[in-house]
Amino acid sequence: MPSDMPTRPAPACGPEPAAPAPGAKARTRVFVPGPLTAGDDVRLPAEAVHHLRTVLRARPGDRIRLFNAGAGEMLGVLTDIGKATAAVRIEAVLRSPPEGSGPDLWLAFAPLKKTAMDVLAEKAVELGVTRLMPVLTRYTDTQRVRTDRLTAHAAGAVVQSERLDAVPVAEPVTLNRLLDDWPDDRPLLAAVESGPASPLASAAAAVPRPLRAGLLIGPEGGFAPPEVDLLRRARKVRCVGLGPRVLRAETAALAACAILQAVAGDLADRPPHRE
Ligand code: SAH
After folding, report:
1. Is residue 189 part of a domain?
2. Alpha helical stretches, state H, 190-263
3. Residue 79 sits in which domain range?
4. Whose CA is nearest to atom 7 of ligand 1?
5. What is the CATH number of the domain that holds 131?
6. Dist. CA 208 → ligand 1 center (Å)
7. pTM of this prediction?
8. Atom of ligand 1 at shortest distance to CA of 217?
């Protein structure tokens, strides 16, 4: 090589940058239920078509990612997009469905004001909650819960956080009903801000793995004294504390989710496609 040719400096350390993974540029992710197989053509759900057309201005030839928990994540090419329908040809597998089961954490919470509840739903999904369950308690501020709105926030957070599984939002139930219907094999950790309670991290460490549990967070006004009695007496419930400060309900919910996921080992893993 002539000595006056510009040379590229050697990297200070580390391997040559890897070629981008196929599909790395296809940022748009669409949840599509059912089997997803390379070579197949699939129709997209109507809500996704609207978003692709009017917000993302997608056109035939654009690459997008399709996903669901059973099928994993696939790279596809948009072959047709109309007002109400769109078709994608599946080209390749980007992620296989995960093996084994990670933590399975249901979040039961007393409804909050609109913005706080939207934030709560979105962030809880980012933190790996698998089911959102509004619960009506004596001091609940809002009796009307827009589950469609929460579902939309949860779906957006699933896409953004690169999850494969949809997060369902249950219809609101009373606290009594929640406790009556609660499965026996899923400990419910109820956050109570006063009186005796195990620290959440120690209570979580005692839950068998893989973690299948629920977390219950009260309303801005807290649980009423008879509700706290009910929780303390319930066989399926363990009352837990989140430290010496009284947290706002949304802070309590998100801090508790992060603590539980850390104790369950969820925050230590990275999926293979982002290692
Ligand atoms: N009304 C209470 C505060 C309620 S905080 C008051 O004004 O004193 C809202 C909810 O967040 C509570 O019902 C509880 O579920 C949770 N929470 C807040 N801080 C907590 C703490 N230090 N320990 C356990 N739970 C807490």
Report:
1. yes
2. 200-205, 225-233, 249-263
3. 29-95
4. 221
5. 3.40.1280.10
6. 26
7. 0.86
8. 15
